[in-house]
Design brief:
2 copies of one chain form a homodimer. With 107 residues, chain A is an alpha+beta fold. Helices cover 33% and strands 40% of the residues of chain A. The first copy, chain A, is built from 3 helices and 4 strands, in the order E-H-E-E-H-H-E. Chain A has helices at 27-38, 64-72, 74-87, and strands at 11-20, 44-51, 55-61, 88-105. In chain A, strands 2-3-1-4 form a 4-stranded antiparallel sheet. In chain A, strand 2 (44-51) and strand 3 form a beta hairpin. In chain A, helix 1 (27-38) runs antiparallel to helix 3. The longest helix of chain A has 14 residues, at 74-87. The radius of gyration of chain A is 14 Å and the shape is globular. In chain A, 27% of the residues are buried.
Chain lengths: 107, 107
């Protein structure tokens, strides 16, 4: 996992923040499957993810339309359903527009 | 650390993604100091943070103006300088507008 190499703004993102339940059966497998699947979606620009007490996943997109397509992807919808039923005690999804960015890189 | 209890959109956020260098002397102390300091800033709405291979910190704000004030806070500027000089090999700061959010909570 590295920092996403995103284009010049504006672009869009989904900030998905979650807490896991004690029932983690199947979670890692599904998370890996979704990570593979999202990379092939139209308009996908990159992803960043980390988990400690909470998990934060930020996926970057070229448009709101691409975010909607991903939300409605059949396999992703199944993952969302299982997440709500089993894996998460709480989550929040925020749809955002990146207006400005900057940084530095010694890597 | 829990999921930030943010208001109805629109509101704003800073997504700060980073990788740490091998020189971590003073980092935890400064991170804790900044976490305390940010909570008292005008327009601060909440924060979410997690670190694995990369660190992701999302701070939420009522306006771009509040984000600018925080960026220019004297103590925060000193932390930014040390971060760039010592603690980070790379980082990216993204200023975003939250347009839409949803979630669920069993906690």
């Amino acid at each position: 996992m590295s920092i996403a190499n995103t284009p010049v703004p504006p672009y869009y993102a989904v900030i998905f923040t979650s807490k896991l339940s004690d029932n983690c059966i199947g979670y890692d497998e599904m998370a890996n499957k979704m990570t593979d699947l999202v990379k092939n979606q139209k308009g996908f620009l990159g992803m960043e993810s980390a988990r400690e007490n909470i998990g934060i996943t930020v996926s970057y997109w070229d448009s709101i339309s691409s975010i909607k397509n991903w939300k409605n992807n059949i396999e992703h919808k199944q993952a969302q359903k299982l997440g709500k039923e089993k894996w998460y005690t709480t989550y929040k999804t925020r749809i955002v527009k990146i207006e400005h960015d900057y940084g530095f890189n010694l890597d």
